[in-house]
Design the sequence.
């Protein structure tokens, strides 16, 4: 199987994490995050550039310290359903929590997007690390880490089971025989598990690509195991080339150990290219962006997200970093890592905040040729299978497509036309045979 570079784009409207000053940019409409025309324009550009997918992040808790984009943004599945009607090949990947959703309802909404888009839907499975989310769903406490990941594995299993409720030829719609549905090709799920009980069947047939594509972002041990078990696309960290290589190899090995085809797990490293006419201009712009976003109070607020939206302003900035271990037990692993790093280094709270935002130019900063060279290096050395790209403005996305993409195409790294009109087809993933059809085939029926 020849490797093909994959590209996706994530849209952040008026500014997500690390982009606290973006909303001030004169080129950014102040309502971009809730303006469907903004997303449609980005999607059309990405499709013209032959990108694989548009990716939409999400969360379900905010306070006043959160990034501008987080404060007021469209719900992903609603957003992407609108975008679907303005595109024909671009994949549409929505983030949705397995902790704060019902499997039946979410499976139905995702499969609805798959039908609306004619087979281009994907689901980024998250477990919600913001521990304050629980209060928006009538719960006093956030589920602990192990329970969230156990539920996530079971949730994906249930969703896939529901998506197979109907076999592909279940609806003959034969007027002469008076048969719309072949009853034997409708299957209830009757799932009873550790975390979930779902009877089924789902009241929606399979889509052109069989099932939505499952994405996941797994960095911790539990996250990597979940990714290797269920993910077909993975959003990966990309702090360094060597780190990305190790992550890529680790995930592929874990997938193979579980009997999966490693090439059917497509890894996307996150990247924020800054492209200009010359390397010098690009690096100047990179430093300018850092200064635009270099707001200490905002960074202090962002640090609180790793500890359940904790308010760090109550602490002395120059005192040792507070022991908040009790706040990390039900959140993500980032808080635990920060506490350990602060202890090992003897850092104050101020030093921890500063360490999270030291200026370091990214690996994808430079002229179109320089950025294309970096993309090629990361791809060919198997640090990644593709990139999930973040651009500050729509104009930056457009410039990347006009200048960098043609170089990648000339080098034979990137497609010159879409291979398929489904997300699975463009990612090189196999069509999932309905489980009940497979059982008939194995039984020789």
Sequence:
């Amino acid at each position: 199987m020849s490797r093909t570079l994959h590209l996706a784009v994530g849209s952040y409207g008026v500014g997500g994490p690390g982009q606290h000053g973006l909303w001030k940019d004169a080129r950014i409409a102040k309502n971009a995050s809730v303006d469907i025309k903004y997303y449609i324009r980005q999607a059309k550009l990405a499709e013209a550039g032959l990108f694989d997918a548009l990716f939409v992040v999400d969360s379900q808790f905010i306070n006043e310290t959160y990034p501008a984009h987080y404060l007021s943004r469209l719900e992903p599945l609603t957003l992407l359903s609108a975008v679907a009607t303005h595109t024909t090949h671009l994949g549409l990947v929505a983030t949705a929590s397995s902790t704060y959703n019902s499997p039946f309802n979410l499976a139905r909404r995702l499969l609805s997007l798959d039908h609306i888009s004619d087979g281009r839907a994907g689901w980024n499975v998250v477990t919600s690390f913001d521990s304050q989310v629980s209060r928006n769903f009538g719960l006093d406490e956030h589920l602990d880490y192990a329970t969230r990941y156990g539920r996530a594995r079971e949730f994906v299993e249930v969703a896939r089971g529901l998506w197979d409720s109907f076999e592909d030829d279940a609806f003959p719609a034969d007027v002469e025989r008076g048969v719309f549905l072949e009853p034997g090709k409708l299957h209830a799920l009757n799932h009873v598990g550790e975390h979930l009980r779902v009877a089924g069947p789902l009241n929606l047939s399979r889509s052109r690509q069989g099932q939505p594509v499952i994405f996941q972002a797994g960095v911790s041990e539990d996250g990597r195991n979940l990714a290797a078990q269920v993910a077909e696309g993975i959003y990966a960290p990309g702090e360094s080339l060597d780190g990305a290589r190790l992550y890529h190899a680790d995930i592929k090995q874990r997938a193979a150990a579980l009997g999966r085809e490693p090439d059917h797990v497509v890894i996307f490293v996150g990247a924020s290219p800054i492209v200009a006419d010359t390397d010098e201009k690009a690096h100047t712009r990179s430093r300018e962006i850092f200064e635009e976003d270099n707001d200490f109070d905002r960074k202090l607020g962002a640090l609180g997200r790793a500890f359940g939206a904790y308010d760090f302003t109550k602490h002395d900035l120059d005192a040792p970093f507070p022991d908040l271990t009790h706040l990390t037990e039900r959140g993500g692993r980032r808080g635990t890592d920060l506490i350990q790093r602060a202890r090992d280094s003897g850092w104050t709270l101020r030093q921890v905040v500063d360490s999270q935002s030291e200026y370091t130019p990214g690996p994808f900063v430079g002229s179109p040729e320089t950025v294309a060279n970096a993309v090629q290096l990361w791809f060919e050395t198997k640090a990644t299978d593709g990139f999930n790209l973040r651009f500050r403005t729509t104009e930056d996305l457009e410039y990347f497509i006009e200048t960098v993409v043609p170089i990648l195409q000339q080098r034979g790294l990137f497609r010159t036309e879409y291979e398929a009109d489904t997300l699975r087809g463009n990612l090189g993933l196999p069509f999932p045979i309905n489980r009940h059809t497979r059982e008939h085939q194995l039984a020789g029926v």
In short: The mean pLDDT is 92. The chain has two domains: 6-279+362-441, 295-355.
